[in-house]
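Progress against Task 2.4 (sequence-to-structure conversion) is shown through the following example record, which the project officer requested during the mid-term review.
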Amino acid sequence: MNTEKIAARRLSLEEVMKLGVKDRVFVSADTAELKLPDCYVPAFLTESGEDFKGGSITARTIFKEEVSCLPDSEDEAGIYLADESGSVTIEVLQSAGVVLDLTLFVPGADKGSLTALYAAARQAFGADIVQIWRQGLKEVPDVKVDIFEERIPRGRKGGDSPMRDRRAIDTYPTRAEFIEFSAGRKLVVEVHKPAVDDTPTI
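Structure tokens generated for the chain above:
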């Protein structure tokens, strides 16, 4: 386990309430999935401290976990800020790397091309570094589609025509599964129809 000892000081609730969502703090690394008592991780508040309305403060760690705590409670690990003149030294868990959750489109993919893809990744980062933990393969149709956002109608039916915004033109509809759409809008996928210019020419 890779950790680093840093000088820090524990923050009071009043001090936490002065922090914003961009201020880096340290919270307990002890979770239900991974027991790490007396160890801390870098984190950021999920909302500005000034918006605190009681209850517990919630922070999101760099490992994408949400941790809730009461800064002033002696029964909890608390929230710390790095401070060279701080009165305590805390042990901070370091990052070992990142897990990439990617969607790769490999044209005409077969076992040989996938093997070559993994081999290239291992050559770039080291054979002991790149590990394929989960592999999901999915064939995609060879068809070009239009991906739209369409406003979800409210009120009575038969009113204004749907308002659409094109998000993408793609050769496979799978990409639509990974696009984040705006609130109040829904996904529409249609077979692509090229625009035809009927403007007469001279």
